[in-house]
Amino acid sequence: MNEERVPDSQEAAPSAVHVMRRYLTVNARYNSTLAAAILCSLLTSALLSIMTQCFHLTIDHFGAVGTVMNKQTVILLLSLGLFVPSQYLQQYLGLKYSELCDRSMRDMTFATVSRIDKQTLDAQRIGDLLSRANSDLAQINGSLQNYFSVRLPQQIIGIAALIASLIISWQLTLFSLAIVPAIMLLQAIVSAPLTRFAQQWQQAAGESLSIANNLMGGFEVAKAYNMGNVLRRRYDAAVDRAAESGIHANRATILLSPLGQLLVFIPQMIICGFGVYLASIDRITSGGVMSVVILSVFIGNPIGDFGAVLSSFRTARGCAARVFELWDMPPEPEGGTERKPEGDHIVFNRVSFAYPGKPPVIEDLSFSVQRGERIALVGASGSGKSTAIKLLMALYRKQGGDISLFGHAIEDWSIDGLRACISYVGQDTYLFAGSIWDNVALGNRSATDAEIQAAIQAALLSDIDVNREIGERGLRLSGGQRQRVAIARAMLKDAPLLLLDEPTSALDTQSEALVSEALQRLMQGRTAIVIAHRLSALRHIDRIVCLQDGRAAESGTHERLMSMQGVYYRLYRSQEADYHEIGD
Ligand SMILES: Nc1ncnc2c1ncn2[C@@H]1O[C@H](COP(=O)(O)OP(=O)(O)OP(=O)(O)O)[C@@H](O)[C@H]1O
Fold it and tell me: Where does the ABC transporter domain lie (predicted)?
């Protein structure tokens, strides 16, 4: 088996400003919470400036007259009293903003994924999509959450502390910070490759998730073909690549941390040394030096964190490229307006369709179905049967000709309205984790218990405990039971058009008999298009449309098509089965 790689993210990493702008736009409805958090940071900054100013004056005054309780001390104590609640509020609001953003971005990602156009989805790996929606998003949220709840307030307070310190002694402040730009530049250089490493790491993580997903989804096949070791090797290769990128990223991040400590430590040493000298020549008071030392802690916080902020932003940029690519995947078109099923026909008129980069699968396809009629679409494998019904469900869009459904052109229907008219039962039924009852109830969210019970009975499921858990994808049921649950779900939906992709093809004779009976009940009084691979399975069908190379080559009853001795006849003869029941 070839080693498959998830295709690289097509987008270059967006700039930090772009990431930030998009984050703020997507979360614009929480702007008031963010504004309140910033306001509290400003209040905290103002309190800090007042406190150091008062401290400065109190120390100087105390030194001169030996009294502690003066006006400045009272203001200092009052400010101290307000400082804690204001910082608490600022952090609480910052964290609240981050949590709200996290929730809304996850919501938005889920909504995007559920609306992705089928054609776009076909080109994706599910594991990689899950990784983008989960791990990449968590990285972006983690970085920006931390920024808005901790780092941004720290920066605001740092700027206020810097101004206060410049006012006390601009010489001491500027001299102490002289080394800072050089170290910051070094940090920027060290952290530069982090975006690429983050992208590579997430890509490899997506690949490993994709492989794990393959193993879980195709567990029986993987076991039957002893694919465990092959998948394991591919998985190992992907996690090896992730580890390699992680090690490179960590090496850069680790170097940022001591550089950050230097950013705090060196200015403080300079303040102490140079401050003592300035005090000795009476250019600053001792209260002034002490205030600048205190302020340097608040100035130092954001400066010391510069490397960490840079590294988390660079990581977020790498992940943002992948998440934005997911968000920007085209949604399926919403279609036209609300319509009601009116006319009689389903009409395919000279319809053509090709999958991207491939020759046409459907070409000049024309056939029609009367209301209440049950037709079978037959044809050799790959002749375009499934594609035709996917066009009818608007999962893909025709490229030529016209399709109309119950009196309206398919593009005039709203997507939801169109799909409300259709019940689909496929070969490989997808059931959701939960009970049989839950799965049937999904067919019609407003159905009563009695209606659900009736659908369960009509689908011949009454002999099973309908409340028991059926496991992920219904794997604790037999194939025939799963199909009958799907039939009950379709019955409850009670849509006027049934699309059946040969739901009995994978069943043994006994299960097939049960499912066929349930299907007959389902088809009663409804228009149905049945895709049939095994011509022996055609029962209760009014007409057969035989496809060849994407065209309707022949149409008529079984007897008529047999008498024509054409495509259908040859197809029929090539199958080893008993055809006597066709057209019962
Ligand atoms: N998502 C897709 N992307 C690209 N090509 C596709 C896709 N789905 C189907 N095809 C190709 O389109 C052709 C028609 O496929 P389709 O499933 O419609 O045929 P079918 O008549 O239903 O076949 P079968 O009887 O084997 O189920 C095939 O050659 C298939 O490989």
Answer: 346-574
